[in-house]
Design a protein that fits this description.
It catalyses: guanosine(26) in tRNA + 2 S-adenosyl-L-methionine = N(2)-dimethylguanosine(26) in tRNA + 2 S-adenosyl-L-homocysteine + 2 H(+). The protein has 596 residues and is an alpha+beta fold. The strands form 6 sheets. It has a 7-stranded mixed sheet, sandwiched between helices. Strands 13-12-16 form a 3-stranded antiparallel sheet. A 3-stranded antiparallel sheet has the order 17-19-18.
Length: 596
């Protein structure tokens, strides 16, 4: 329990109806919450990665926001000084009585010799120090779907500079739990966090441009909240958004994805990155309706969800560039070839820019590599999904405060991999898939990377898949490299109509050079920095929605031991002995062998 937390006896003395002894205390970071054994309020331990990443981004956002404000004030001072110089040049008799501030700290005007006054800045004059200068107010944060309030409490207690965190939920039990946890976390939480029973969509619509940060972390799809969320974020503010409906976003139900997000997914090895890009395209679409646009600073796929951090700006002119950032994807049904076609293009003439439809189609009816048809998906966000300067700043902050991040190892590994991605290359190839198409043995990643680099192209890994490779090499170059590899490592004869046979039947135009390239290993790989970590424990994944009855069918999500503990609690059995796992002996033995 924290030093500023109250004991159960203190809570009773204050007239509260709960006893701490009736709850389990869960500590994460600097925050503590009270959780009842029953599944009344949603809490997912797995989301510690999500919360840690959000705190790291939020700290960087506050720092960047302050720097941007100082830069804006510097530009205004420079502009005002230039106006004074111009006025002097036009009027030789122009004289300055006071420059900048008087001794009492007020801004004063500059008088000309003919009695006319000229303000030294665009701000109002003769105001006390600070007033009229658009002082940067501490940011306000909205957590639209708070449940237990753990995320809001961590923001308030761990991120310096936040003035207020508003936690919303439309479930009465969740709001009661959140308020209970706010009191339990002491004076800091009570002064900064407030909880409301409200529909997040209605609340955000009735509070437009009020919050510097809006956090959406729903159980499932965030699509129904996006329209109101993009209106609630202040200009230059940040929207943090999670989507856990990965089966939909990754192509399991394409028609459902289209109805929710306005894009059709494809089931390629890059499907998780495509899910990120579909979500970004959907947020951009909602923002455009209000003359706004997004700038992604970080987009990650972790565990069982995708999480994006985007800044939202208002500009009717910049909004016109949206079609240049969206593309349709053509995926060959026979091989791994994919091609992108932008939705729009621009033509510049006489210092004017015209926006026109994109040229198409980007591919023929049949794949030039294997002769098969194409599936078409999208539109997806094809512009960069990360800001590498932000990523570097976030990673540096995380490393400097590693003791304050419970999931430091995981988020630092993800950020390290993200920092080494090629930012301007959408989607990626899978080396194993390329070899599966040709039915050949796989070259090592270092050998393949070297061949691409020696051919004059760039290549990197991806945080989404340890076997994924991002490259700007066109598909015909990729297949030429693989043809050269197969010549040195022959394969068995395959039916002529198969995609791999058609590809190998062609002679390579490029003669690949497989000698080891200096840049074939990234800096993290060369230093042997861990980039893809295993789950910290068994049954690490999504948990049950709050309010659902926990039964034996949920053993795969919670684990048999946790399930037994819950059942014992409901039956009034407070014993702490080890329960026998209710799993068939054969299945239990197989599971133990797989874990060993």
């Amino acid at each position: 329990m924290g030093a500023d937390s109250k004991t159960g006896e203190e809570e009773k003395q204050n007239g509260n109806s709960f006893d701490v002894n009736d709850y389990t205390i869960i500590k994460e970071g600097d925050a503590e919450i009270l959780m009842h054994a029953k599944n009344e309020v949603f809490y997912n331990k797995t989301q510690v990665n999500n919360r840690d990443m959000s705190i790291a981004v939020l700290r960087t956002f506050i720092s960047q926001r302050k720097q941007e404000h100082e830069a804006m004030l510097a530009r205004r001072r420079t502009k005002a000084a230039n106006k004074v110089l111009d006025a002097k040049a036009e009027n030789p008799g122009y004289s300055v009585q006071h420059n900048g501030e008087s001794n009492d700290g007020s801004e004063v005007t500059e008088d000309t010799s003919n009695g006319e006054s000229c303000s030294i800045s665009e701000e109002r004059t003769k105001n006390p120090r600070g007033k009229g200068r658009e002082e940067l107010k501490p940011p306000r944060v909205l957590e639209a779907l708070s449940a237990s309030g753990l995320r809001a409490l961590r923001y308030a207690r761990e991120v310096e500079g936040i003035s207020q965190v508003v936690a919303l939920d439309n479930d009465k039990a969740s709001v009661e739990a959140c308020r209970r946890n706010i009191k339990f976390n002491g004076s800091v939480a009570c002064s900064k966090v407030e909880s409301h029973l409200a529909d997040a969509r209605v609340y955000m619509l009735t509070h437009p441009n009020e919050f510097d940060v809006v956090d959406l972390d729903p159980y499932g799809a965030p699509s129904v909240f996006l329209d109101s969320a993009v209106q609630s974020v202040a200009d230059g503010g940040m929207l943090m958004c999670t989507a856990t409906d990965m089966a939909v976003l990754c192509g399991g139900n394409g028609e459902v994805c289209y109805s929710k997000y306005g894009s059709y997914p494809l089931r390629g090895k890059y499907c998780h990155e495509m899910a990120l890009r579909i979500l970004l395209a959907s947020i951009e679409s909602h923002a455009n309706r209000y003359k706004r646009y997004i700038v992604p600073v970080l987009s990650v796929q972790m565990d069982f969800y995708v999480r994006v951090f985007v800044r939202i700006f208002t500009s009717a002119s910049d909004m016109k560039n949206t079609p240049l950032k969206l593309s349709y994807v053509y995926q060959c049904t026979g091989c791994d070839s994919f091609h992108l076609q932008t939705v729009g293009r621009t033509v510049s003439k006489n210092n004017s820019v015209r926006y026109l439809p994109g040229f198409g189609p980007a591919v023929a009816q049949e794949c030039s590599d294997c002769g098969k048809k194409f599936n078409m998906g999208g539109p997806i966000w094809s512009a960069p999904i990360h800001d590498q300067e932000w990523v570097a700043a976030i990673l540096a902050d995380v490393k400097s405060m590693k003791e304050r991040y419970p999931a430091y190892e995981r988020i630092s590994a993800v950020l390290t991999t993200v920092s080494e991605e090629l930012p301007d290359i959408p989607l990626f190839l899978s080396l194993h898939n390329l070899c599966a198409t040709l039915k050949c043995t796989s070259p090592s990643a270092v050998i393949f990377r070297s061949a691409v680099i020696n051919a004059g192209y760039r290549i990197s890994g991806t945080h989404v898949n340890p076997l994924g490779l991002k490259t700007d090499a066109p598909m015909d170059v990729i297949w030429d490299i693989m043809r050269c590899w197969v010549k040195n490592h022959p394969v068995k004869a395959q039916p002529s109509e198969q995609a791999g046979s058609v590809i190998l039947a062609k002679e390579p135009v490029l003669q690949a050079n497989f000698s080891r390239a200096v840049a074939s290993l990234s800096k993290a790989q060369a230093k042997k920095v861990a980039r893809f970590l295993p789950n910290p424990e068994r049954h690490w994944g999504p948990k049950l929605r709050a309010g659902r009855t926990i039964t034996s069918k949920h053993v795969s999500l919670l684990g048999p031991r946790a399930l037994n503990a819950i059942n014992n609690d409901e039956n009034g059995d407070g014993s702490n002995h080890e329960d026998v796992e209710e799993v068939p002996a054969a299945k239990r033995k197989k599971t133990e062998e797989s874990d060993s």
